[in-house]
Design brief:
Helix content: 40-55%
Number of helices: 19
Radius of gyration: 30 Å
Structural class: alpha/beta
Number of strands: 12
Strand content: 5-15%
Length: about 475
């Protein structure tokens, strides 16, 4: 059984022949997974139905008593221009088809056309309607400041305008049935965004998550698609795969960039057609599962290099969320620090320690290659070692030490590939600066970043506090 009908808004089928309505509904459900349909055998009732019920598509017979399909097409186009209409007729006449297209029909099919051709036309119309509807939602979403589902993002601690804008986008696309690709460095919280999408769109459906890195083609197929009894040695019972476990809900595929080529092809079929083959079966199965995928790799670079299928890349990237790294939103560090101190204190059964005032400033100078996850680990390590009332900065300095040296020497030096938007400490012009000029500018830049805290400045520059005082004294002399 499906947990959710597809599409979200029903398909309205209009024909005076009851038998055709039944057979069409059966074909759409069996071959296309389209289960949300309305049937109407009296053309005079169509406009009344549309007035009280929003629909995603109208399948309209051309020749009917009372009101013809051509007359209805014109009325629908004038009153509901956003709703695509597909005309169906028993006769193949070019002039009639041209006339219907001019009146605004999305497509025109002869009833005797092959089911696959008709289904493909229906799916194209539904995709177009969904994308246009999502675009309208996005426009409305970005015009307002308040979130409709703030509780869905409650696990994400932030004061960042960048993330708030991202939340608005997530709300706008969450109810789509299309895939969402979530990218960002390791530790930024990609799964938290995926869970927010699930909570908004399918809160009553199952949530299933799997890391696909390292799964070869056989293991991937069995894990996601399951197997039938006797599919291989030891397969004494049939087993459902994760795709079926997530039917009516959400399947989250982490590290999608690590998929092998054969597994990519099978995932593409699932995304394109909504169907898959359990291992050992020659009969496809259909599901209503929302696919969310995440990667900390550059999928565009992978597909350019030929290791990730281009068609899968564009299919899975229908909606796209990129989470900025922690170093690009330093305003979040004090909030996260307080949040993790509270969390760690509860776990260790200790009183929440008071952090030194300069700790947040010190952390703001760090590159955080592990992002929020790394900050959390730092805080838990420090609280685990904590004894007195005031939190020591030494565990943080110890964990930052090696990466910090790399950060100042490589990441923040002029010409670094990981410049992250910060201005370099020294700007080289056409003239090579003197050593004194370089040192003065480095000290000035360190002071700016450390907000004048000389202990932090000395740590950034790799010198002792007395040595820094000596250099500062020279600057004023």
């Amino acid at each position: 059984m499906r947990g959710t009908d597809y599409p979200a808004l029903p398909v309205l089928m209009v024909d005076d022949e009851e038998a055709w309505l039944r057979s069409m509904a059966l074909m759409l459900a069996r071959n296309g997974g389209i289960t949300n349909v309305l049937k109407c055998n009296d053309s005079r009732q169509v406009m009344e139905i549309l007035a009280r019920q929003a629909v995603s598509l109208v399948l309209l017979d051309l020749t009917m008593p009372h009101l013809s399909g051509k007359d209805l097409l014109k009325e629908i186009g004038e009153s509901y221009p956003e709703v695509p209409v597909i005309i169906l007729t028993g006769r193949d006449r070019v002039e009639t088809a041209v006339c219907c297209i001019k009146l605004g029909a999305f497509d025109y099919f002869v009833k005797t056309a092959e089911d696959d051709r008709l289904l493909a036309g229906v799916q194209r119309a539904l995709r177009m309607f969904e994308l246009e509807r999502e675009n309208r939602k996005l426009t409305v979403s970005f015009q307002k400041e308040q979130l409709d589902y703030p509780e869905a993002f409650s696990a994400i601690v932030t004061a960042s305008d960048k993330l708030h804008g991202l939340f608005q986008y997530v709300e706008a696309v969450a109810r789509s049935v299309q895939p969402v690709l979530i990218t960002g460095e390791s530790g930024v919280g990609k799964e938290l965004i995926a869970r927010a999408i699930h909570q908004i769109s399918r809160p009553d459906g199952p949530w299933v998550a799997v890391n696909v890195a390292g799964l070869d083609d056989d293991v991937f197929s069995d894990t996601l698609f399951g197997h039938v009894r006797g599919a291989f040695t030891g397969a004494e019972q049939a087993r459902k795969g994760l795709v079926e476990e997530a039917d009516g809900g959400t399947l989250f595929l982490d590290e999608i960039g690590a998929l092998e080529p054969k597994a990519q092809l099978k995932l593409l079929r699932l995304l394109q057609d909504g169907e898959y083959f359990p291992v050992g079966s020659d009969r496809p199965r259909r599901v209503n599962t929302r696919i969310l995928a995440a990667s900390n790799q550059d999928l565009e670079a992978l597909q350019a290099a030929g290791s990730f299928r281009r068609d899968l890349f564009y299919r899975i990237r229908t909606h796209y969320v990129h989470i900025p790294p922690l170093r690009q939103r330093p305003e979040d560090i004090p909030l996260l620090l307080d949040h993790f101190l509270d969390e760690a204190a509860r776990e260790f059964g200790k009183r929440k320690p008071t952090p030194p005032a300069e700790l947040a400033k010190l952390l703001a100078t760090y590159h955080f290659p592990g992002n929020v996850r790394e900050l959390r680990a730092m805080v838990f390590d420090a609280v685990g070692l904590h004894q007195s009332r005031k939190l020591s900065m030494e565990p943080f300095k110890r964990l930052m030490g090696r990466a910090d040296a790399q950060d100042t020497a490589a990441s923040h030096y002029p010409g670094s590939e990981e410049d992250d938007g910060l201005e370099p400490a020294v700007i080289f012009g056409t003239r090579l600066p003197t050593l004194k000029e370089v040192v003065d500018q480095l000290i000035e830049e360190a002071g700016r970043r450390a907000d004048g805290n000389q202990t932090i400045m000395a740590g950034m520059l790799g010198i002792s506090r007395p040595a820094l005082n000596k250099r500062l004294k020279k600057q004023t002399d």
